[in-house]
């Protein structure tokens, strides 16, 4: 039976501490793109459909919906869904450009990832200030 060859270089770690590994900004944007899509699918669509049903059902159902939406925690949840929508939109546009081989070099990819993060936060903040 052949003996395993030792690996050249540093010894491998026993375990990986995934929270201690610092990811590059394009990886963070890509991960948040997936998270925002899942959040919109699992929470955004059901809440939007519930709001539409309540607004079209009866005046009492709409009044109940309006009272729930006026609560500060509901506004905070709506703000989170707004961020998820904007981040998913901007990151999707970025991924579309990457699929077209525009900005795939390291420096432009990092720059576009930073733009996506900042733009989503700034637009969310500006809409929150105007509506709250």
Write the layout of secondary structure elements.
Elements lengths: L24 H33 L1 H11 L2 H28 L6 H26 L1
Helix pairs in contact: 1-2, 1-3, 1-4, 3-4
Would you write up a description of this structure?
The chain is mainly α. It has one domain (25-131): Fumarate reductase/succinate dehydrogenase, transmembrane subunit (3 helical TM bundles of succinate and fumarate reductases), CATH 1.20.1300.10. The chain is 74% helix and 0% strand. It contains 4 helices and no strands. It has helices spanning 25-57, 59-69, 72-99, 106-131. Helix 1 (25-57) packs antiparallel against helix 2 and helix 1 (25-57) runs parallel beside helix 4. The chain is elongated and about 75 Å long. The N and C termini lie far apart (72 Å). The model has no long low-confidence stretch (mean pLDDT 92).
Feature tags:
mainly alpha; 74% helix; single chain; 3 helical TM bundles of succinate and fumarate reductases; 4 helices
By CATH, the superfamily comes out as Fumarate reductase/succinate dehydrogenase, transmembrane subunit
Instruction: Kindly give the count of domains.
Output: 1
Decide which structural class fits the backbone. Answer: mainly alpha
In CATH, the topology is named 3 helical TM bundles of succinate and fumarate reductases
Helix proportion of residues, in percent? over 70%
Describe the largest sheet: none
- β-strand amount: under 5%
- Shape field: elongated
Query: Rg from C-alpha positions?
Result: 22 Å
Order of helices and strands: HHHH
State the low-pLDDT regions, or none.
Answer: none
Q: DSSP helix count?
A: 4
The CA-CA distance between the termini, in Å, is 72 Å
Average residue pLDDT: 92
Please tell me the CATH architecture by its name: Up-down Bundle
């Amino acid at each position: 039976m052949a003996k395993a060859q030792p690996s050249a270089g540093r010894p491998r770690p026993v375990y990986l501490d995934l929270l201690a590994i610092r990811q590059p900004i394009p990886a963070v944007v890509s991960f948040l793109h997936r998270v925002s899509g899942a959040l919109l699918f699992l929470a955004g669509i059901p809440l939007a459909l519930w709001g539409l049903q309540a607004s079209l059902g009866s005046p009492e159902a709409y009044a109940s919906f309006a009272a729930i939406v006026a609560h500060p925690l509901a506004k905070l949840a709506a703000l989170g869904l707004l961020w998820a929508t904007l981040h998913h939109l901007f990151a999707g546009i970025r991924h579309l450009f990457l699929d077209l081989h525009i900005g795939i070099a390291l420096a432009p990819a990092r720059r576009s990832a930073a733009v996506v993060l900042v733009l989503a936060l700034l637009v969310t903040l500006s809409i929150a200030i105007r509506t709250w």
